[in-house]
Specification:
There is one protein chain. The protein is of the alpha/beta class and about 325 residues long. About 50% of the residues lie in helices and about 15% in strands. It starts with 5 loop residues before the first strand and ends in an 8-residue tail after the last helix.
Length: about 325
């Protein structure tokens, strides 16, 4: 793989802006693409994102609204929501050279198709190199340069290592792997489980209940991962257990905050929580694979309105006693 000197980040929300700053600190030239011309103008004029107030863009970051500018990038980071990833890569298709690494930075499963993020990239852009970046990371921490470790997965091990070197810095540390599906499953499943942990918090069921929920939730994540051939070290690593711990413990997690609101009986706006869109797809895939995921299924049922929060809690607490697996 050629040297990665220029990186394009698609999506100028909090996560995209944070990744742009991080890549710039790693010594890369960065093209930050935003769909809204007003956002491009604001980023250029003020060097500050409204999604990350008080954090300035690094000097090497150039905002643009022209997708054609992406054509000169050596690698592309897709910092768009999981359900919008297919639209984004379709728009990029005329502007990417064969062999360009394209890294999904969203955590989810596409509704309807049940496709994982790298599968969508491969579907639409069969000549590029799909990869996935995931792990315990909040945008504000990454944007500020606080220490963060993540996992970068690509089927091509040399490409995974090159991307990790290109993005890595003293504060942002990507560990690379070829276990693409394991990394994708960790990110997608933990979002759904974080909603469940938030419900426990919102219902004030106590710290013991939270610990039990997270532990049993991880058992579900691991069972699901094994059904897809994920490696155990991936599931217990940063993109699995690590991300689950972070997302189930802080209101900075949109999924955890969504769960808190549900547990408190409020009707939250779910459009910014990836887990709200992934829950049904995860539960359906688990059923197809005959994987027992009662917590994920309960979250999906609460979100689609077929089960109340209280009924979901009761369904989990009245399950038959069994050996721990």
């Amino acid at each position: 793989m050629s040297t990665i000197d220029c990186i394009a980040v698609i999506g100028a929300g909090a996560w995209g802006t944070a990744l742009a700053n991080s890549a710039a600190r790693a010594g890369r030239e960065v093209i930050l693409w935003a769909r809204d011309p007003a956002a491009v103008a604001a980023l250029t004029a003020t060097r500050e994102s409204p999604r990350l107030p008080g954090i300035r863009l690094e000097a090497q970051v150039a905002a643009t609204g022209a997708l054609a500018d992406v054509s000169r990038a050596d690698a592309v980071l897709l910092a768009v929501p999981a359900q919008g990833l297919r639209t984004a890569v379709t728009a990029l298709k005329p502007h990417l050279a064969d062999g360009t690494p394209v890294v999904a930075c969203a955590k989810g499963i596409e509704r309807g198709t049940h496709r994982f993020m790298t599968e969508i990239i491969a579907d639409v852009l069969p000549a590029v190199v799909p990869a996935i970046l995931s792990g315990p990371s909040f945008a504000t921490d990454v944007a500020r340069g606080l220490p963060t470790a993540v996992t970068l997965a690509c089927a091509d091990e040399a490409a995974a290592a090159a991307l990790a070197r290109a993005l890595g810095s003293q504060a942002f540390r990507p560990y690379h792997t070829t276990d693409v599906r394991g990394v994708e499953i960790g990110g997608a499943a933990k979002n759904v489980l974080a909603i469940a942990a938030g419900i426990v918090q919102g219902r004030r069921l106590g710290a013991s209940a939270t610990a039990a929920l997270v532990t049993r939730g991880f058992a579900e994540l691991a069972r699901f991962g094994r059904a897809f051939g994920a490696r155990s070290e991936t599931l217990t690593g940063l993109s699995g257990l690590g991300d689950l711990i972070l997302s189930c413990s802080s209101p900075q997690s949109r999924n955890f905050s969504l769960g808190i609101a549900l547990g408190e009986g409020r009707k939250p706006d779910a459009k910014l929580a990836e887990g709200a869109f992934t829950a049904a797809a995860l539960a359906e895939l688990a059923q197809e694979k005959n994987v027992d995921m009662p917590v994920a299924a309960a979250v999906a049922a609460v979100l689609d309105g077929s089960l109340s929060v209280d009924a979901a809690i009761e369904s989990l607490l009245t399950r038959p006693f069994r050996a721990e697996t």
